[in-house]
Structures are given as structure tokens and as C-alpha cells.
Specification:
535 residues, five-stranded parallel β-sheet, 21% strand
Length: 535
């Protein structure tokens, strides 16, 4: 431990220097307060013993100045002319104790030991509290700035740099506390040099640090490799500027203790981060698996319903053709009363509706292979909107187009895809027309492999319990006679046959977004010079 003795009497200085030195203390002496303060600014002391009555600068004033430089330095005041008032004033200014001259050496040794114990306990308590705060943080992005801030306090440094090891680029600056000047390139070089050392603590006498101190006018430096077992996680660099006192043995000990806590905390935080990443990967994989299972179930269900629909449509088509034919023949008779003609017209209209349902069933069950060719999606969307322009405009619905400037082409059957878009726009119109007004946003997005068309309306939305059923054949929330429940089922099958996907997000009372995703057309030159779609 470093002790500074301040006394204007040479004999007192020599006595304490010899006696304390014989007990293993590093003793430095000063003849007055001003000389002592100059020394303290250049070097750190664990304890100061100062006379009260001195020329130039008295003991109480020296005590006050020492506490401004380093509040944690313990100070014992000694005098042969002490009074109660002087002792009280000393305690108020932060003195550890007050001792009368002439000294009883055993008494002063016991007092020094207690003062140093207090100083050491304060330092260890600070490390303990800092360690608790460090281990309470499990997020790496929050932990690193916390470590640099706490290191600044624990080591009483002016500037702290925390570097993390990076195999590809060497140590990188992860956090900094205290300093505001731009980071000097030599600091990076110092971190690299320390990272390669095998020592657990690099002392201030190391050549690499000494060179850094010289080039950066820094009074003292501690370089602490952050290691767990044989793995180097990073480097902590703490600096004190000239005039703040150099790091001493106690500081190096505190750095060692706190450094071990830092290393374990960083290691734990990385494990926690890795665990979170694994959990997120599992969550994404589980979502994909669930989506795949739903798609398989839906495909099997649609295949089964398709077979059933084909059989039902075939059996109903012949008798329905007869009903329509006889109704038309009877309507040509001139002997019908007004009521009879109305009844026949009702039979004819309802039969026509039944025939349309049967035709939809046949379309559903006899899906044609798409006749694919390169398609410009913007042109296809505009032609689709032309088809439904009258219905949409008369419903008070505004269509907002958000197309990217140069959407890549897709490869598909334009007639089938147009059928899909008409179904989606019609559903959006029906969801909004109850309000008398609405807004349909059609947005085109693309990345190198896929193109997405988003249809977003602010209609009535879909109830949460119905979202998983909307692609099921014959499922509909529309009133009887307003829909067959086949539109989205057919659309799903068409998009699936194009190697794409269709997703629906909806909130009841807010609106619905339907996203159609299709592969971007990738052309590959054929051997004859023509261009064919790449597989």
C-alpha cells in the first residue's frame, strides 16, 4: 500500500518513513501541503498522514484539496496542538481519524491498518455492487456500455475503452466511457497487442503500453484481457491522464477482480444471446412446419372435394338441362296467365343460377394446367381493374396504386391470374360497400426471386376464428345466394400451380390484406438462341 506522509518536521518524516517502511508500506514524504498535492496529482496513494499546522498550506486545507482530487483516499490528521473544534472540522471535511503527537507507534500502526481496511472494503464493496449490476444484465447491447461505465468508476479512470475480439478483423470497439475525443488509431493497436498476450493482466510497465502512454500523453494505463478459460473475449483499456495520479497496486488488484466478473458476464450474455437466436430459429422453423402442414391438409381437402364436386356436377347437369329446356318451352306458350309466366321466369332464373354453380364446381374439379408465358404484372393488374371498374367506382371505393417503377416479369397464365385478381378485388369491394365508401390499396413489391402484390382494404375484416377456413371450398360468410365459397379456393389452387403463395391478414372492423407472391421470371438462353424460362 502507498502512504504519503506530510509534515514540516524532518524528524517526523524520517521516523514514519523508516517505521512504516519496515512494516511493508511504500512511503513517500512531503514537507508541506503544496508539495504533497503536486505529488498526489502524479501518483495514487491509499492513505495520507498529514500534520495540521504547516507553512503555506495547512492540514485542513490540504485535506480538502486531497478529497477533491480523490474522494476515496483516506486521510489521518496529526498534531501536537489539537482541539475538539479542529478534530470536528477535520471529520466534517472527510478525515478518517485524528491523532495526537507525540506518536505511539503501535497506536498509529493500528490506526493505519484500520484506515487501509476501510479503503479496501470500500473498493471491494464498489466492485461487488458493480458486479451485481453487470450480472443483472443479460442483453449484450445493454451490458457492454454498462461495463465501460462501471469500469470508469471502479478503476477511477478518465477514459475506458471496451474492445471485443473478432476473428476476421481483430478487436473492435464495442463501448467507451469518459472520453469525448476521437479514438486514436494507436488505441486499436494497443488492444491488438494486449489481446495476443497470455497474461491475465498487462501492467503499466509493458513496452506496448509505455509507448502508448508516451504518444497519447496519458498518465497511467491498465490493459485487461477479458478471458474465460482459454478464450479471449475482448480487452478493457483504462486510462488516467497526467495529474490524476497513476494506477497503483490496489487498482491492479481491483482490475483483476472486476475483470473476472466482466469476463463471466460477457460470456453468459453471449450464451443467452445464442440461446435466444436458437429459440427464434426454432420458432421460425415451427411456423414453417405448421404452414406446410396446413397446406398439405388444405391440398388433400381440396382434392377430395374436387372429386366429389365433379361427381355431383355430372349427376345434376343432365336433369337441370331438362328443367331449363322445359321452362323455356313453356314460356313460349301464349296461353299463360300472368302468374304462371312469373312462376316460369322464377324457375328459369333459379335454374340458371344452379347451372352457374355447377359450372363453378366443374372449374374447381377440372383445373387446367396453366398456359405459362412471361407476364408484366402492372399491365395485368391494370387490365383487371378495367374489368371491374364500373362495379368498384359505383360502390364509392377509391383504388390507390403503389407500383414499383420497374416490376420484374413473372411466368404464368394471364387468364388464370386475372381470375385470381378479380376474385380478390371483388371480395374487397363487397367487404367495403356496406360502409358506402372505402379505400383499396394495390401495392407491388419485388426482390431478386419473388414478386408480391398486396391488396389492402379498409372493409369489415374477417373474424379471427374464420381466418383458417377462408381457403376451404364452399366456406363463405356471405348471405345465402351471395357467394358459393369457391372463389378463394380456386384462387389458392391457381397460385399454388404457379409455384407461388397467397396469404391473408385481417382484423375485424379494420380491414384485410391479401398478399399474392409469385416467382420472378428467370430467363435462360436455349441452345437455338431463343429464351426459355429457367427451372
Amino acid at each position: 500500500m502507498n502512504i504519503l506522509v506530510i509534515d514540516d518536521e524532518q524528524g517526523i518524516r524520517d521516523l514514519l518513513s523508516v517505521e512504516l517502511g519496515s512494516h511493508g508500506y511504500q512511503v513517500v514524504v512531503a514537507g508541506n501541503g503544496e508539495e504533497a498535492l503536486d505529488t498526489i496529482r502524479r501518483r495514487h496513494f491509499d492513505l495520507v498522514i498529514t500534520d495540521v499546522k504547516m507553512p503555506k498550506l495547512g492540514g485542513l486545507e490540504t485535506l480538502e484539496a486531497i478529497k477533491e482530487i480523490d474522494p476515496d483516499t483516506e486521510v489521518i490528521l496529526a498534531t501536537g496542538f489539537g482541539t475538539i473544534d479542529t478534530a470536528v472540522a477535520a471529520m466534517k471535511k472527510g478525515a478518517y481519524d485524528f491523532i495526537q503527537k507525540p506518536f505511539n507507534l503501535n497506536e498509529i500502526l493500528a490506526l493505519i491498518e484500520k484506515a487501509l481496511e476501510k479503503s479496501e472494503l470500500k473498493a471491494l464493496l464498489g466492485i461487488y455492487q458493480a458486479s451485481k449490476a453487470v450480472f443483472a444484465s443479460t442483453k449484450v447491447e445493454k451490458l457492454l456500455p454498462l461495463i465501460s461505465d462501471l469500469s470508469l468508476k471502479v478503476l477511477k479512470a478518465d477514459d475506458v475503452y471496451l474492445y471485443l475480439s473478432d476473428v476476421s478483423s481483430g478487436p473492435r470497439l464495442a463501448a467507451r466511457s469518459g472520453g469525448t475525443d476521437p479514438v486514436d488509431p494507436s488505441i486499436q493497436l494497443l488492444a491488438s497487442a494486449v489481446e495476443k498476450k497470455s497474461d491475465s493482466l498487462i501492467s503499466v510497465s509493458e513496452a506496448s503500453i509505455a509507448e502508448f502512454i508516451k504518444s497519447n500523453n496519458s498518465g497511467s494505463t491498465i490493459a485487461l484481457p477479458i478471458r474465460v478459460k482459454s478464450e479471449t473475449l475482448g480487452v478493457l483499456l483504462a486510462h488516467r491522464k497526467t495529474g490524476k495520479g497513476k494506477f497503483g497496486g490496489g487498482d491492479l488488484r481491483n482490475a483483476m477482480i472486476f475483470g473476472s466478473q466482466i469476463a463471466q458476464a460477457v460470456f453468459n450474455a453471449r450464451l443467452y444471446q445464442s440461446l435466444e437466436e436458437k429459440i427464434e430459429e426454432l420458432r421460425v422453423a415451427n411456423e414453417k412446419l405448421t404452414d406446410t402442414q396446413h397446406q398439405l391438409i388444405r391440398s388433400e381437402k381440396m382434392a377430395a372435394v374436387g372429386q366429389l364436386a365433379a361427381g355431383v356436377a355430372h349427376e345434376l347437369n343432365n336433369p337441370l338441362t331438362g328443367i331449363l329446356g322445359f321452362a323455356q318451352l313453356l314460356m313460349q306458350s301464349s296461353d299463360l296467365s300472368g302468374r304462371e309466366r312469373e312462376d316460369l321466369e322464377s324457375i328459369h332464373v333459379e335454374s340458371q343460377r344452379c347451372r352457374q354453380i355447377i359450372q363453378n364446381l366443374l372449374k374447381f374439379s377440372r383445373r387446367k394446367e396453366p398456359l405459362k408465358a412471361p407476364i408484366e404484372i402492372v399491365q395485368l393488374l391494370d387490365s383487371t381493374l378495367d374489368l371491374v371498374y364500373y362495379e368498384v367506382s359505383t360502390s364509392g371505393i377509391e383504388v390507390i396504386k403503389e407500383y414499383i417503377p420497374s416490376a420484374p416479369p413473372i411466368f404464368g397464365d394471364s387468364a388464370q391470374l386475372q381470375q385470381v385478381f378479380v376474385n380478390i378485388v371483388t371480395n374487397a369491394k363487397q367487404a367495403m360497400e356496406e360502409r358506402g365508401t372505402g379505400e383499396l390499396r394495390i401495392k407491388v413489391e419485388a426482390d431478386p426471386t419473388h414478386l408480391r402484390v398486396l391488396f389492402k382494404d379498409n372493409g369489415c375484416g374477417i373474424a379471427k376464428q374464420n381466418l383458417s377456413k377462408i381457403f376451404d371450398p364452399f366456406f363463405t360468410t356471405k348471405p345465402v345466394g351471395k357467394g358459393t365459397g369457391l372463389g378463394l379456393s380456386v384462387s389458392y389452387g391457381i397460385i399454388e400451380s404457379h409455384g407461388g403463395a397467397v396469404r391473408v391478414e385481417s382484423e375485424e372492423g379494420v380491414g384485410t390484406t391479401v398478399t399474392v407472391e409469385l416467382p420472378v421470371y428467370q430467363s435462360a438462353p436455349a441452345t437455338d438462341g431463343s429464351v426459355t424460362p429457367a427451372k
